[in-house]
Design brief:
The protein is an alpha/beta fold. The protein has a single domain, classed as NAD(P)-binding Rossmann-like Domain (Rossmann fold, 3-Layer(aba) Sandwich). The chain is built from 9 helices and 9 strands. The strands form 2 sheets. The chain has a 7-stranded parallel sheet, sandwiched between helices. A two-stranded parallel ribbon has the order 5-8. β6, α5 and β7 form a beta-alpha-beta unit. α1 runs parallel beside α2, α3 runs parallel beside α4 and α4 runs parallel beside α5. The chain is globular and about 55 Å long.
Length: 287
């Protein structure tokens, strides 16, 4: 397994300004990791680092748009120069676009794919290359194997649970799952683990910040608030999901459906794809 503990590890987390990203950063910090918190909202990332420091961890905050290839190149290079090659990378940054496919415009597709899929591609490619170069450059000792690191890519139960009202979001997350499986196979020989994590309903602000297409402004706001309340009512906080991420790194899991609904939907997608296609026709509960 790539990593068995986190004391002294360097962890890079995108979308770390809140929600699952912040919870994961703090879970790793609590176990002794130094955290690099990246977010498009710099003050939010700085708050995460401040919280990590109360746990006795070191850290640094960066502002970066994960969909921007040049910005991510600069970010990865700066982390390496200022600190070193990270041991853990959690590609968590994500956005949601909800609504019918025929109402989803090109700009909406570009945004959700840019953050949810390209952000994961950029983070995996840039930091994965750094990890691979480190493994190849350092000799492995018999009593201390050269551990390459671990990449965690946050997908969603929507990756395998189709919905008539989440075509863009589900497509982006399905891409993350397949990318992770391919990358895991490629990097296994270098002792670099790759995990796809698929949360179900988790108490974050992703719905409150979502874009709803095909409806007016007032209706969009109503749907955002209704969806946000539904996630909070589910009672599954991001801290619980973060614990599953930590466990996945320790155990080098390939694929982790996080909570009960994520596991049930995954099992159903494998046992009866036809039933999943029928469920996909039901209008989303957020409506």
């Amino acid at each position: 397994m790539p990593l068995a503990h986190f004391d002294g590890a360097l962890a890079v987390i995108t979308g770390a300004g809140g929600g699952l990203g912040r919870a994961t950063a703090l879970a790793l910090a609590e176990r002794g990791a130094t955290v690099v918190a990246a977010d498009i909202d710099l003050p939010a990332a700085e708050r995460t680092v401040a919280l990590a420091k109360t746990l006795g961890a070191e850290g640094a905050a960066y502002q970066v748009d994960v969909s921007d290839a040049a910005a991510m190149e600069e970010f990865a290079a700066e982390v390496r120069a200022a600190r070193r090659v990270p041991d853990i990378v959690v590609n968590n940054a994500g956005v949601a676009v909800a609504g019918p496919f025929l109402d989803t415009g090109v700009a909406d597709w570009e945004r959700v794919l840019g953050v949810n899929l390209w952000g994961v591609i950029h983070g995996s490619r840039l930091f994965g290359r750094q990890m691979a170069e480190r493994v190849r450059a350092l000799p492995t000792k018999p009593d201390r194997p050269n551990l390459g690191g671990h990449i965690v890519n946050i997908a969603s139960a929507a990756a395998y649970a189709p919905s008539r009202e989440l075509p863009a979001y589900s497509t982006s997350k399905a891409g993350v799952v397949m990318l992770s499986a391919c990358l895991r196979a490629e990097l296994a020989g270098l002792r670099i683990g790759v995990t796809a994590v698929c949360p179900g309903f988790t108490g974050t602000d992703i719905v409150r910040d979502a874009t709803f297409v095909g409806v007016g402004g007032a209706e969009s706001e109503r749907l955002r608030e209704r969806g946000h309340r539904a996630l909070q009512a589910r009672g599954y906080p991001p801290e619980k999901a973060a614990e599953r991420i930590v466990d996945a790194i320790v155990r080098n899991r390939a694929f982790v459906p996080v909570n009960a609904e994520a596991r049930v939907l995954h099992a159903l997608s494998r046992i009866s794809p036809a039933s999943m296609r029928l469920v996909a026709r039901i209008p989303a509960v957020l409506r």
